[in-house]
């Protein structure tokens, strides 16, 4: 692992204090902080390269297009997709999932067909399928989690039927930290002819993702959770599926020719990128990919795992504290509740100590229902966190509890 103190120095926001204390940022599952290289790339685009892409026949536009499409190639390589035609820029994982629901699913599913999700999904991978259930009459099945926050492959196999047309699963839970055995889950789903969407929002920044090795049909992630800017994300889709899908949004750039009688759509990936894209966001994402490649996704995940294990051990010494989510295969997320005190009150007091954690249902209300809690306090890790951050977290939790009890 690269020198963490040198890596921390690349993140300007970490130099500031919060309530008079050095900031300890432990909410990277919500959004990661941004390295100076990403910030500089966006500034450089707007100060030296800004022009609309794909249509200008002048140098500025050609350079902007080269940067934009260069970012797409970086994402292709990061995911090991076969072609840049399989890389669609969207706003984030939410839009990626909604795009598949609005196109592939609406094209392919009919009343009585089944979609399988897990109990640990983020709302962005629950509600789109509920809308289709209510509109198309499909059946939405839920693979339950166990007391540790894990799914069971045998239980999944027993839920798959010839009517299961889509399995949509998170690679890593934002609320529990559970890392799912997605490669095995994909193979099971393909065994009954179902396609698989993987929500990779919490994975790409923490582990190497190879979409060809996984053999997933769709893969989604958000740029802002991978050290990139907000408003840019990626949908990967197998080219054969994307070619057959109806367009998602209609307008400029997604067309080849338009008459009032008929429109011929553009080729991939542009068929799914209507209107002026988030050019600066894509360029920033490309530089974030450079950062991930320089540090190494698996190295980041291994370091965060060490911090997570240390944080779990230290927090578990606190009377009345219960860790929510103790999967054997777990990423850099520690969710917990404390007997007799509300998570929001604890997190509010922790903010006074300069500690930034999330107290919420984390857009995973079914997970909260499963564990019979209204919300949890969640510390989620990024490459810039260190063991001192964990020590300050634990001390602040202890102090908050003493004040509240
Ligand atoms: C697993 C998962 N899927 C999808 C999303 C949606 O991503 P977006 O489209 O970029 O918003 C999130 C966001 N998770 C969180 C956002 O804020 N706190 C979180 O835990 C997520 O954690």
UniProtKB/TrEMBL annotation:
InterPro entries: Aminotrans_V_dom (IPR000192), Aminotrans_V_PyrdxlP_BS (IPR020578), Cys_dSase_SufS (IPR010970), Cysteine_dSase (IPR016454), PyrdxlP-dep_Trfase (IPR015424), PyrdxlP-dep_Trfase_major (IPR015421), PyrdxlP-dep_Trfase_small (IPR015422). It catalyses: (sulfur carrier)-H + L-cysteine = (sulfur carrier)-SH + L-alanine. This is Cysteine desulfurase. Its EC number is 2.8.1.7. Its cofactor is pyridoxal 5'-phosphate. One of its GO terms (molecular function) is cysteine desulfurase activity. The keyword Transferase applies. Belongs to the class-V pyridoxal-phosphate-dependent aminotransferase family. Csd subfamily. Keywords: Pyridoxal phosphate, Transferase. Pfam families: Aminotran_5 (PF00266). CDD domains: SufS_like. It comes from Thiosulfativibrio zosterae. The keyword Repressor does not apply. NCBIfam families: sufS. Residues 24-393 form the Aminotransferase class V domain. Gene3D superfamilies: Aspartate Aminotransferase, domain 1, Type I PLP-dependent aspartate aminotransferase-like (Major domain). It is an enzyme of class 2 (transferase). PROSITE patterns: AA_TRANSFER_CLASS_5 (PS00595). Catalyzes the removal of elemental sulfur and selenium atoms from L-cysteine, L-cystine, L-selenocysteine, and L-selenocystine to produce L-alanine.
